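Example 3.
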Amino acid sequence: MIWSIIKNEWQFLIRTRVLLGLSAGFFVLLILSVFLGNQQIKHQTQIYQDAKEHLRQQWESIDAMNPHGAAHYGTYVFKPSSLLNNLDEGIHSVTGNVLKVEGHVQNEIAHSEASQMQTVSKFGKLKSSLILQYLVPLLLIFLAFHSISSEKESGRLKVLVLQGAKPLHLVLAKTISVCLYGILLLVFVIGIYSMVNFQSISTEVITRTSLFFISYATYYFIISGLTVFFSARWQNPTVALTSMLGIWIIWTIFLPSILMTAVEKWHQLPSRNEFKAAMKEDRSQGLDGHNPADERRKTLEEQTLKEYGVDSLSQLPINFDGILMQADEEYGNKVWDKHFGHLHTVLGQQKQSYQLGGLINPFISLQNASKGFMGSDNLHHQEFLVQVETYRRSFIKTLNDKHAFGGSKTGDWGWTADNAFFKSVPDFKYKQLALFSVFSNYRTDVIVLFLWLMMVCLLLMLGARKLQIV
Amino acid sequence: MSSLDIFLYEWKHFVRNPFKVVALLLFVLAAIYGLHNGANLYHKQKDEIVEVKAKEVEESQKTLTYYEEGKKGPEGRPWIDVSNPFWAIRYTPIYHFKEPSPIMVYSIGQAEQYGFYKRVTFRSSPYDADMAEEIANPERLQSGTLDFIFVVLFLLPLLLLILLYNLKGAETEYGFLPLIEVQVGSKNHWLLSRIAFYLVLLLSVNVLLMLYGASLTAVFANASQDLGIMIFYVVLYFLFWSVIYFFILQRGKSIIGNTLMMMSAWVILAFIIPAMVYQWISIKHPANLMTDLIDSTRDERQKIYDQEDSLIQDQLIVLFPEIVSSVVSNDEAKKNIAMNRSVSALANELMKRSVVAIEAKNQEKNKLVSNSYWYNPISYFHNQLNSIAQTHYNDYQEYRNEVQSLVDKQIRTMVLDIWNDIEVDKAKFLQYRKALASYEN
């Protein structure tokens, strides 16, 4: 019986001209979002490649330079875009894109796209996620709000029940038929995306898009089911429509922003001024590669002299300055780990609290899951920063080791390493995160979405039981 | 039936519809929440500025003690000599601030995307890393803070939709419309009067909310004129949506059809058009990875330092013709040191050229946004309101220009004082502190 009702519903939908017109509009928008998004990402990736090659070429053309001079010269890492970002760009436009890698300091990423122009769109670019998260649910509400009430008004409900249809089957069938419409749009987007990016499809991409698909499909069921429930409960279809519009506004416009601001207040991040002052304070207690009066330097100096069995720095077969600077780096690393680690912890706490917001607003779980599965959320961004910092440490250590053990003597700041050495220093390579390694971070979102799914099923059962047939 | 009667009837319609009343209350709550978000950011920035200013005074005091105690600089750094303009200026703490406007209570705009204080030295540039935004959760930045202007731009049309969706449609569906036409004479007049009721109601609520917002910061004392302009734009925005909804309701025949049309208008204007424009601009001008700026800060700068002294001197003379007749120009021993210490001026010119190119690219994007205003009205209103609140891109551009002017001024003062062999004492240091803190000549 459920399938005959679904079939009947779809026949009705296909015959409705307004819906056909709207569907055509949605299909065009979705095609546009995928094509334009792809073009943008390809263009941006080209610029990224050019910039990366330009910087690497500069590094590899260093003829002769003191390794410590090279540590100050440093290099730059650019944040790459992934084709998955085409479906959901996430936080990409508000995070910086350029990060300087140099000695003595862990820099912050700068020059975000959003800071390079005036305001255009509060809800971001025309990505598939914008349409799938905001607009498709709205369409589903318009499709479902009248589904049961129209049967009541026309008297078909009585006929259907007399024919043997159970109220629960009826509400389930109505929900599924509306939800299927959303799923059809979802399949269409993923189909177009796969066709356009056929050559880049990997197991990882398939896994991520499958989870993306499941999250949206679940959310569409929640929206459709809730609307059908209201349609069954309220006598007046307009009340069902306005109630669902109210819920849509609260879920998608109000709550995400309010909850995000609230979690930032619950788990506060330091101001830049406080953050820098605290790091400076901790840093000043350590070695200063340029300050001969430092206490720690003396200890390190004594240790090194003892190790090499000599009495003065000038007798050392190596360059003590390199050892000193590496020790300073390592002390600095502890300071960065403490302070950046604290930022990381607070951001993690904010994320966890925000994810719990899904319990009152499944849209939050959908957004988190969507960004997360498409690799464009803060977790993936933080991982990128961690990879850059790991690279920075090995990059600076290579330079300091060259300074110490490359053949120069202490105090010989004029000594230079050759081009072959600079060419041998590896470039930064970003390793995309495998989803299985971070999936646990999205467990809350997935569980909350399924809890909502169960709750909507219960509501539908309740709605069916209380459905007034006569 | 007079307009007043229609007004009074509409009041009864409104109060008897709990859904509409709740929607209005929710709107008011959201607006108050938005106003407090704006006020919090305003006070947070103000407090931060006070803290940084205290730090500035502390740093200045530290340098002053060198003069008072006859020291040349900090312990263990014998190469520093604060009696020389080069070191004196380097040790003169100059911070520049983008003071928040009290009107920020209404619109946070782009304030969270940029820094609002900066330590300015003769090596600074408006694109230094410390010009970046405050530390914040990027996911929060992406979802945006709910401020009053967000409530007005995005929720107000929805509230208006909720208040107006059943006007005329309900009467048409129940078959009362011919009767009403007999009673009021003109359907349009009747519909217009009913819409006008909600317009007056919402305008009053919004003006009251804005006055409440004004009490949260120093709007009445410092920005009452801006408040007036902001109210004007908000009224204009109301009218814009009222006209759209009026035509939909006038032509519509059913509640559901009207709701669908009104919702579609909102979705198209608030979501689709701005998102498309943003996407299109991103394709045309992708995010700038600042390679020109990087080149200016590294390789190109190094080339300047590697030039022969005569070339450096020639370029310095072009920038500062006064040095030709300066005291040091005839003293070969001092001239080399002066030249080395003045090279920052050439590096600054190089940096300025790359910054001009970056700004030009950004302005091209801004122009594309502005050109879209005739079909992208929400972005128009958004940027206008941000401008009034001084949280628009251009306000931060102006701030960057001020930083550049301060750098230029420091460099000019430093170069001329080095070449004139000025010895810096406490009085001169205090003079630097005062003169170099102002970007105006």
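The mean pLDDT of chain B is 90. Chain B touches chain A through 88 residues (CB under 8 Å).
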